[in-house]
## 1
Amino acid sequence: MRTTLLWALVPTLAAAAACGYPKGGAVPPPVTGEAASVAAKKWPDATEASLGEGRALFASKCNACHEHPDVNAVAAAKWPEIVKEMGEKAKLDAKQSELVLRFVLAAQSSR
């Protein structure tokens, strides 16, 4: 009986835990122009193309398990840990996670 009750609660608890993550939002537009220049000052190898790769990963991987997070709903300082944790779950390698992180932070700065 207890096992049945526990298994009945698992989906409810999982859904409640997901609600604590960043609120959902649309995928931000591509990072271009001034925001890409700002990103290149922080990461000299950042380009519009690499930021576009990060956006593509964000768009395809983040929506696989939950709604896209609103990148502006979370402080920039929290994104490295979020991307690390979610990148592991999405099976992103270190380079892919870095591309997503750079895109998210560049997208925030372009608002």
Note: The chain has five helices and no strands.
## 2
Amino acid sequence: MKWTDHDLIAAYRSGDLDAFQVFYGRYKDALYTFLHNRCRADASDLFQETFIKFIDAVAQKKITNPKAYLFQIAMNQIRNTSRKAKIISLSDEFDIPDIESEEDEIVSEETFKESLSYLAKEKPLFYDVLHLHIFGKMTFEEIGKLKEMSKDTVASRYRYALNYLRKFLQNDQLQAKEG
């Protein structure tokens, strides 16, 4: 029998520690990747803090969507860290093609990071959806539950985020050609 997240959390609340181990195993990699891509230096600490806060929350209240709740805690942890640092740091490991070939179509890693940082600053709602979908590996439906909006709204914010990045990168490339 495959247990749902809700079943695992209910079993954990009843004292079954193995149920939590299954839940943890199910999401530890995706959560760590999500945190690592958002704030590389603090990812391990935030990972631990997220699970500690999640365990505390599970003990105190009924959670209807455990995965979404877990990622919402992680997002809050990231925001708190970003507020303290006053910067948003991005991962150095984006899959960017080699800059020396096909210069017109290639975007440098620095430009890509700059565009993501700009999106996070200017359109944080779009950035959150983009980041949860790509790095958090969440579906639009899961993001919708997490953000309390319809999956269609999530999908359109994702499209807006992609279009925003495309425009930013195209403008940057035009400026590079002119300069």
Note: The longest helix spans residues 151-178.
